[in-house]
Amino acid sequence: MSERATFRQVLAVPIFRTVFLTRALAVGADTLRTVALSVLVFTVTGSALLGALTFGVSFLPQFFGGLLLGALPDLFRPRLLLVTGYTLEAVAAVLLAVGLPVWASLLLVAGIGCLSPVFNGTSGRLTADALSGDAFVVGRGLFQLATSAAQVMGLAGGGLAVAAVGPHTALLITAAGHAVAAIWARVTLPDLPAPGRETEHSLVRRSLLGAGELLGDRTIRRLLLVNWLPAGFVIGGESLLIPYATLHGFPDGAAGVVLAFVPVGMFVGNLALTRALTQRGRERAVAPLVVVLGLPLLAFPFGVGPVVAGVLMAVLGCGFAYGLGLQQPFKDALPDDSRGQAFGLLSTGLMTCQGLGPLLFGTLTEVMPVGVVMALAGVATMATAGLAIAVRSGVAAETPVPG
């Protein structure tokens, strides 16, 4: 491929195209499930803490899944892993729609979350193996664009769907989306062989050893942290939007529409960074975009309405493009035989932080106003810009200069 890859070029690669399209559908279904379950739990319990915890309950358990099962993407056939993942998501959504107790619903979503690093690692490895050079970064950017678009439909449509048909029916729609993704992957993805990574250890031990090796590398560890922390803090604030909207009298379904402006901003930010900047420019933009990510949350203590909240969420969403500037340095730092586990670990830590964020800031709402806690999340997010600057300086210092 040419030095500057295009969307058309990366979509012309059949394996990437299949992974990309099925993942976009699954993300939309996941987002609809999150909205429906969050509304259901908050309606039943009236607890801002449980509402926030529901928003991130599938994130935190990924720590255990990534730690204990993370080697699977480097050991098993990728089509088997992806189809299994989508199928399990569909079954879980049907069970949630039946009307389980709150504790059982949260436990079920947490259980599915344990397996997410395996499926994310498989998608990441397939993308890294199928695309190279600038095509890899453009492909990852296209993934994020599709994720943003899917989240727009899941959040905006989810809020309206829950208001119109109720959370139980919305969860059945979620199940249908995952079922279609499973069938699509089974029919269109080639049955590629397992990567063939040899190991004399059990799966759990191989996963633990592999994670230790990756985290023991200073460059990989620092790149992981700068991927994880800003997103974890900002999701902690974003997760409080549903209880914030309820407490401030937003119209029915408005919270989902307001949240949908986050992926709108993500779409714009990722599109601009992917098409307008070189790789060096993307790397330089990481720290400023982290500031953009957290800054809008500082307005919420002042009692903003739904229109202003939507604009602020769109600006916040643009900041998520910071991750694009970290993709190529991260791939370059990885050993070839651990790519699947490395991308799974990236997802594991990201989701774990995004699970801890709602838990941390949701707990603070027990003693502080929701808007003030959202602002604190914004401050914490912006503080990580210093880490982003330090990481870029370190990576640049370790990168050989072409002669």
Q: Roughly what fraction of the amino acids lie in strands?
A: under 5%
Helical content (DSSP H or I, runs of 4+): over 70%
CATH superfamily: MFS general substrate transporter like domains
Please tell me what the overall shape is: globular
The counted number of beta strands is 0
Low-confidence stretches are none
Mean pLDDT: 81
CATH class: Mainly Alpha
Indicate the CATH architecture. Up-down Bundle
Order of helices and strands: HHHHHHHHHHHHHHHHHHH
The assigned structural class equals mainly alpha
Number of domains as seen in the coordinates: 1
Give Rg in angstroms. 20 Å
Distance between the termini: 23 Å
Major sheet attributes: none
Number of helices: 19
Output the CATH topology.
Answer: Growth Hormone, Chain: A
Structure overview:
There is one protein chain. By secondary structure, this protein is mainly α. It has one domain: MFS general substrate transporter like domains (Growth Hormone, Chain: A, Up-down Bundle). It contains 19 helices and no strands. α10 (218-238) runs antiparallel to α16 (324-333), α11 crosses α12 (254-276) and α12 runs parallel beside α15. The protein starts with 6 loop residues before the first helix and ends in a 5-residue tail after the last helix. The model has no long low-confidence stretch (mean pLDDT 81).
